[in-house]
Amino acid sequence: MNNNISYSRVGDYFLPNITLNESSPKTIQPLGRYGRMHKAYLHEHRPILYNTLLLSERLYPLCREIDQAATHRLATIENRETAHEIILEELVYY
Hints:
Layout lengths: L6 E4 L2 E4 L16 H13 L1 H9 L3 H35 L1
Antiparallel strand pairs: 1-2
């Protein structure tokens, strides 16, 4: 059997040398609040999906995407609330 996987001996066991394909830690942006919350939710309530995403290297890109979407949505809501407050203040003074 010819496979291209190298192994390291740890005690009495041979473990495969497996690494993630993601870039170096310096170029990876950290997860924000909502990305971390989604990761924790998956870990606690959907462990099979969490492990599948983690092993296929799709967990962190998914969490980053969710974090960016939630942050954008929150900013949009805050902008709308600010606009409504300005309009209400103008109506009160006239």
